[in-house]
Amino acid sequence: MEKVELKTVIKDWRLHAIAFILVAITEAIGQFSIAVGPGVILLLPMLYAFFLGLGLYFTPFISEKNAKNAEPLIILGVTLLIAKIGVTIGPQIEAIIAAGPALLLQELGNLGTIFLALPLAVLLGFRRESIGMTHSIAREPNVGLIVNKFGFSSPEGRGVMAVYIFGTVFGAVFLGLISGLLATATPLHPLSFAMASGVGSGSMMAAASGSLIGAYPELEEQIVAFAGASNLLSLSTGLYFSIFIGLPLTEKLYSIMMRRSERKAAKGGGPNA
Amino acid sequence: MLKSVIEWTWVLAIFGVAALIGNWFGMDVLPWEAIPGMLVLIAVSLVGLMLEKALPFSMPAVGYIGILAIIISLPWFPGSDYVVAWTSQIGILALATPILAYAGISVGSNWADFRKLGFRSFLVAIAVFLGTFIGSALIAEVILRWQGII
């Protein structure tokens, strides 16, 4: 946060004027939904705002300096979002406690990343990069963990950085698009997806749960409370989860997969045959 | 500390204006009706940011902010009715839109790195996010059903 002087951020009136205009225009346009098979993809103002903002970066309206100055507004904007989520959780504390077992255990769902993405990464030809890529969703604490253990220029470090960059650029938008689609297209309950939205990043949670609210406005309060509680849990336990479960498990599975493909190679065929 | 607090207040206020505009255009809540709630959220954020600087624990500001906001809105907390009533004037999406507007502007500077990723990395990254999202939703579904909550 101290990378740029907050004073210059505050005085960047051009940046703020553009942000205000983006928000006004996108909110005035409002929400649309596109039917895709049995589900819908929700197009929300926040998605238009993201893409318009990104597009403006390539025009003379936004300079590199404006873009850098936008970072503290994201960080402090997320604090307001977390505060709003907190005051939504308070009145529903009994419902949250009742759902405690589900909240705690769904944190294990993060392992889904390893089981789905690690085999894919290995199949696509990644080697030790795949450990950095798939042990977690690669937010800042996890980048720290990998860099600390393997070094920044190690294959693992390159892997974690690749997913980190993808997440920074498209994480929120991607989760926003798929959460509405999955919640409407699958038989799973929107509140299960609300809990899944709490991946440990404020903007990703906002986008994922925002789409759920767009699809199920009558459940707004509960969606926010479940997503927020899950996010708070992910924030506080996520790194330890990675240290003690996620990373060791990824390394173990990786070595099993490698041994198997080596055995296959020894038999003759070679890994690509 | 004081200098930081003043600067945080300014940044939060600027962001608050953006959110109030979004709230007005998107949810038809007039800005002055949402101002008390926004002031509450800004105050909670400021206290959390100050606690992060002042206390020796390694908890990030959002941790303090989340806990503090939950406490002041608990039914038995004095004045929580006002906290809940005021902040209910501000939609969660009205806060999300300016975050993503600023995020869009800001990630432009990561675009060069992003383009270097390559298609295979892109596929794996999608599987990473899909995996945790679906994994968590499946477990939550099983337990919530088993408990009879949904």
UniProtKB/TrEMBL annotation, chain A:
Keywords: Membrane, Transmembrane, Transmembrane helix. The keyword Oxidoreductase does not apply. The chain crosses the membrane at residues 12-34, 40-61, 73-93, 108-126, 162-185, 191-216, 223-249. This is DUF3100 family protein. It comes from Planococcus citreus.
From TrEMBL, chain B:
The keyword Transmembrane helix applies. The chain crosses the membrane at residues 7-26, 32-51, 58-77, 83-105, 117-140. Keywords: Membrane, Transmembrane, Transmembrane helix. This is DUF340 domain-containing protein. It comes from Planococcus maitriensis.
